[in-house]
Structures are given as structure tokens and as C-alpha cells.
Specification:
CATH superfamily of the largest domain: YebC, transcriptional regulation domain
Radius of gyration: 18 Å
Number of domains: 3
Distance between the termini: 29 Å
CATH topology of the largest domain: Alpha-Beta Plaits
Strand order of the largest sheet: 3-1-2-8
Structural class: alpha+beta
Strand content: 15-25%
CATH architecture of the largest domain: 2-Layer Sandwich
CATH class of the largest domain: Alpha Beta
Shape: globular
Length: 248
């Protein structure tokens, strides 16, 4: 998937440096709760979305006790609501924010204040939909017993659009409507999936100089630190020059 590899790779590297385990576990716990709410069952066997959430929890090394606690607590989390926000950061960078919370007034106020503080502007829902494609993204741990070419043939039949093979992992992209089929196929093949998510992939990216890009990243970091925020997507090109600047 041309253009996505560098973006996703640097995003992963930056995420590995910045992410706090408590934030990751909190995000996954909310996903488990909303999966139970939407699926009507706290049994992963009968709730596909819950099965994916538990799968992601294991991929993030979330302790078994924490997963079970999240499932048990999830049955009582009917107040959680999903919401999205769209806007522009500094220098016209498009930013899409996915939230999950029990107080919509709080999250609306907070997200708006972050955009204002860092020179951005919050837009109306749907205003940025044309800039992002919602795709299924599967991260697979690269192991010696996996033949990438054979795996590619199997997964293309299940709906895989693009497959990126790196030293330690394989990333598979599919259309939104093929997410369930591809997840089932990976389960049938007994392939260890580190994460399976629906992500918003930018159709095109915008290059900024390092100083301008850092201003955008301050807004993105602030959004990601909010407990009500699940995911933040943007269309800023994560260049090698910017990656080097972040490492120093």
C-alpha cells in the first residue's frame, strides 16, 4: 500500500515510545465494554466484535485477569457512547478523532479546547470523510513458520487488498466490508494476530517542515492523552526528516 508503510511504521515507533500501558489497557477495556453493549453478549464465541477486542487485548499483553475484569465490568457499561470529531490542525492538517465516553458534554468541550489551543479548528461531522478511507488493518507477528507468499494467496481470497512484509511483522489491509471475513480466515489458519482494527487511512498526505509538523504533533499528542479519546488519525506525511527530529 504505497505511502502507508512509512506513515504506519513511524506512527508505530512513535506510539511505542509515547504510549502508556494504562492508557492502552483503558482503551481496550472500553472497546470490550462497547462490544458487549452492541453485541448483546459477554461471550466472545457469540460476539464477533468482542472476540476481536479480546484478541487485541492479548496482542497488547494485557493480563488475563484484566481482560476478565473488563468483560465482567463491560456488562454494566451501558452509558458508554462512541463519538467522532473532525477538524483541521495547524497548516491545514486534517485530523479525525474517535472517542468513547460516558459524558458527551465533557468530551465535546475538551476536544474543542485542544483544537483551539493549538491553532486548529473543529469542523462538522462528515466534513473530512472524503480524505480518509476506513479499512481493516491486521498486524501479524512474523514467524519462521509463516510463508508470506502462501499467506498472501490465502488472504487475497478472503478480501486482503494489500500486504506489507517487514522483518518482524506483516500488515494486511482490507476493505471495511471484508474485515469480518479476513479475521475469520486468520482464525482458521491459526495465525497469531497482534491487532485487528478498523483504521482511517488518509487518501493522500501533506508534507510540512519539521517545525510546523511538531506543532501539529503537539495537538495530536494532547488529544491522544485524553482518557476519552480512543484513536486519532491525520493526513500529515511522517517524513524521514521528521522521524529523525523526533528521535533526537
Amino acid at each position: 500500500m504505497s505511502g502507508h508503510s512509512k506513515w504506519s511504521t513511524i506512527k508505530r515507533k512513535k506510539g511505542a515510545l509515547d504510549a502508556k500501558r494504562s492508557k492502552i489497557f483503558s482503551r481496550i477495556s472500553k472497546e470490550i465494554a462497547i462490544a458487549i453493549k452492541d453485541g448483546g453478549s459477554n461471550d466472545p464465541e457469540f460476539n464477533p466484535r468482542l472476540r476481536v477486542a479480546v484478541q487485541n487485548a492479548k496482542g497488547a499483553n494485557m493480563p488475563k485477569d484484566n481482560i476478565e475484569r473488563a468483560i465482567n465490568k463491560g456488562s454494566d457499561s451501558a452509558s458508554l457512547v462512541e463519538s467522532t470529531f473532525e477538524g483541521y490542525g495547524p497548516n491545514g492538517i486534517a485530523i479525525f478523532v474517535e472517542c468513547m465516553c460516558d459524558n458527551n458534554n465533557r468530551v465535546v468541550s475538551n476536544v474543542r479546547s485542544y483544537f483551539n489551543k493549538f491553532g486548529g479548528s473543529l469542523g462538522t461531522n462528515g466534513s473530512l470523510s472524503f480524505l480518509f478511507d476506513r479499512k481493516g488493518v491486521f498486524t501479524i507477528v512474523q514467524k519462521s513458520d509463516i510463508d508470506p507468499e502462501e499467506l498472501e494467496l490465502e488472504l487475497i481470497d478472503a478480501g486482503a487488498q494489500e500486504i506489507e512484509v517487514e522483518d518482524e511483522q506483516i500488515t494486511v489491509y482490507c476493505a471495511l466490508e471484508d474485515f469480518g471475513n479476513l479475521n475469520k480466515k486468520l482464525e482458521q489458519l491459526k495465525i497469531e494476530v497482534q491487532s485487528a482494527e478498523l483504521q482511517r487511512i488518509p487518501n493522500d498526505t501533506k508534507v510540512l517542515d519539521v517545525d510546523s509538523a511538531k506543532k501539529v504533533l503537539k495537538l495530536i499528542d494532547t488529544l491522544e492523552e485524553d482518557d476519552d479519546v480512543q484513536n486519532v488519525y491525520h493526513n500529515m506525511e511522517m517524513t524521514d526528516e521528521l522521524a529523525d527530529a523526533l528521535d533526537n
